[in-house]
Each structure stands twice: as structure tokens, then as C-alpha cells.
């Protein structure tokens, strides 16, 4: 009887202790996004050998995860990668499969901060797949958020929007998860969505999203500083009267940041605001402070971005020699580290600078270099995506083979001499099953292709690109430059192009000086024939000027913007070849 009483007392005593420990870990998860330096102090206290709180193996594993996420916030990416690798290995040993996607996310986040998307994307795909299998809403939200950030950086806006909006929709599911691990605040995901919308030029929607993030929940520390800075940026781009007040609020949040790295990051964002407002001297001061910090901490990607931003401000301020020397140094560092996306921006800044100064030869040179780097960036991501697809196919084939081998082994064991017939029947059944799956897939693709036309031109284009990928049919894009056509003649050109196109083709005024044609079920040979017909139509409208037309072919990971970029590159190369031939 006494023994039972002792056990009951221990149970009553241990329950509140366990609950208190879990609450403390939950608080650290919140704290690491608000005040990461303080969160690290709390983690060190719990992890100390002299700590009065004795953690279970699961709690120790969670503490390692929180340390990993804290290091990400403090910019200690290599340390985060090391902890994530050890954490995932320990999760396998402890048979805690539910913990694995969280460590994969942390590792992917660190590689993303390094700009190494090739290693980050496969990790995120594995994490998201595991999260769905194991019903881990917390890791699914974070994985979708990080993948959305990467897709935003590589101009895959459709995928990014889908991931980020899905992550926001999943947030109510957090309450249903039995065991907490780690999750980002909702404001972080809304911030990423706002940045995506801003990059697409949708400044009003970006402002609305980030304004909702600020008003939906009480924010503190670093999260609040990031949200208010983004809100001030969007208010400035929307020319709202509240922008000055918001910028002042953003500056007042800077003392809340607890490390030099976080402060340097915020200074670069504040410098962008000052640049937009025309306060060039203040922008230069902030960027120089940030650059010194990044150099001390050896943050190569941040150095490239800050130097590029500083060079742009110096050019605007008239300090041309200093700006060009800094830009040259930035380009050399970008080439050395294969930062194609940053090189694209650097060459664009230089091209615009020389065009403004009427040095059109150098402007064209840097524009061509910009397009070359854009193609390198596209090919880099395309190879990464293909590597992912090959990995998935390899896993599926391996699974299919192992299942087949198991079936054959069981047949052999059970039926002895007659096993040959049964193996044959098994393989025949699998072949029929495989044929049925292919048939159903084709039928589904046909149904997708036969869907009614969407309401807007943008939706129609998105649907057309999606159908091309799902159905596997060819699609070509033709880019027509209309700069040489008189404004009054543009309606005539549009009318003639509409008569030339088929019913399923799509025409879009991509910009004031560009018309885009999307031709489904059209290979390169057919595209070239259409281009010749367009040239015949345009010749009377060009008044002896050259016709500028480019084209590109649809590939699996393409978006509209990447198709247009490649068509631009093709057109520039074609013009350059003709120019060299003429000389």
C-alpha cells in the first residue's frame, strides 16, 4: 500500500514538472524569433550540466533543434548545419521520426542563407514529404515558408505564392499537434508573402498583407522590427502619407536587436528606405557600417549584397569612380562564389548607369552580360530541379523493385515447383496495373486540358503553362519588340497578329514595348514559320528599321518570366550575330 502511495505521489509531482519544462521550451521557441540572443542564453542554462532541470531524451533533442533555429537567426549558419546533421542522426537512433523534418528544415534554412539552393531544395522536398506523412503541421509550415523564399529569389512566383499561402492556411492546425517541436510565427510567413508580392510589383497587396501581420497579433523584438521595416518600405513605394511615421517607428525598433549581425541586416534595410527617399548620404553611412560588420564576421553573401547596394547609392550620389571600383570588386566576388542572381543585378545597375550617361556601347555590353548571367542562374536552378526529379524517380523505382522482389520471394516460399507460373502471373498483374495507371494519368491530363477558360489573362497563361507541364505537350513563346513601331500603328499590328494566331494561342501585351505570344502544341520548326509570317506583317510598319523578335521553348521548371528572359537572350544573340556578320 505504501509503495502505491509513493508512485501516485511521484506521478502528481512529475506531471507539473514535465508541463513546466514543455512550457519553458515553448517560450524559447517564441523568444528565438523575437530576441535570439536571449533565447541562446536560456538554451545554455537548460543545457548546462549543473541545471536543476533534468531533461528527457526527447526534450534534449528538442533543445538541440531550438539551438539550431536560434543560430539561424543569429547568422551562425555553419553551426546550424552541424547541429542539424547531428540532430537528425540522433532522431533516427531514438526512433523519433517526427523530429527529422525539423532538423532538415534547419539545415535547409542555413544553406538558403548561404545562397546554396542546390543543397537546400532537396532537403526541403524531403522535409515537406515527411511532414505530410507524419502529420507534423509545424515543420510543414516552416518547410513551405523556406521553399517559398527560395522560389521568390529564383523568380518562380507561382510556386512561391502557392507554398506561402498554403503555409498560412495550415496555421490553425498547430493546435491539433500532440507534441510541440518548433514553428515560425505567422508574421514571418506573412512577411515572406509580402516580399514576394513586392518583387512582383504588387505593392498595394504587399502593403495589405504586412499591415495584417502587424495588427493580427502582438509582436516584439526582431519580428516587430522586420515587419515594421517592410511596412514602411511598402508605404514608401505606395506613396502613403504614413510612410514617414512608419520609418521613424522602424528606427525606434533598432535598439531591440541584440547582436551586431542583426543590427547590420536592419541597417541595410533602413538604407534602402533612405535611398528611396533621396537621403543618399544617410544611406551610404548605414551601408558602410553594415559592410564593416559583415566583413568582420566573414559573411560573403551579405558582403556581396551590401557592396552592390552601396555602389548603386554611390552612383546616384555622383561618386562614380568609387562606385565603379566597388562594383568591380563585388562582381569579382560574385563570379568567384557563382552568385549568378547577384551578378544579374550588378550588370543591370551598370547598364542603366551607362545608358543614363549616353554611353550606349557599354550599356549594351553590360545588358548582354546581364542576360548571360540570367541564363546561368536559370540553368543552375534547372539542373537542381532535374536532380530532384531524378532522385524522386530513383526512390520510386527502388521502392517498386523492392516490393516486386518481396512478392516474388513470398511466392517462391509458398508454392515451390509452381512458383514460375505464379511469378509470371504477378509480373503480368503489375504490368496491367502500370498500364492502368498510365491510362488514368492521360485521362486526367486530358480533363485538365479541357477545363474551361479562366477569367483573366494571367490565370489563362498560368493554366496554359501548367497544362503544358502536366500534359507533356510542347509550348513556344515569341517575344516581339514594338519599340520601332509607331504608337498609332500598334492597334493595326495587334489586329493583324490576332488574325494570324490560332484559337488556342494567347497574345499578351507584356510591357509598353513588348508583345508576347504563347503557342501551345508548337515545336521550334513551327515557331520559326510563325516568326517569318510576323516579320512579313511588321515590315510595312517598321519604316526600314530592323524587326526584333526572340523565341523560347517551354521546359519543365519554366514560368512566364523565365520564358521571356530566354527569348530576350535569344533575340540579343541573334542581333549580335547579324551585327558581326555585317561588319
TrEMBL record:
Keyword Hydrolase attributed: no
Domain GGDEF: 473-583
Organism: Shewanella nanhaiensis
Keyword annotations from UniProtKB, A to Z: Kinase, Membrane, Transferase, Transmembrane, Transmembrane helix
InterPro entries: GGDEF_dom, Nucleotide_cyclase, Rev_trsase/Diguanyl_cyclase, TPR-like_helical_dom_sf, TPR_rpt
SMART domains from the UniProt entry: TPR
Membrane-spanning segments: 420-439
Pfam hit, one: TPR_12
Keyword Cytoplasm: no
UniProt protein name: Histidine kinase
Upper lineage: Bacteria, Pseudomonadati, Pseudomonadota, Gammaproteobacteria, Alteromonadales
MF terms (GO), sorted A to Z: kinase activity
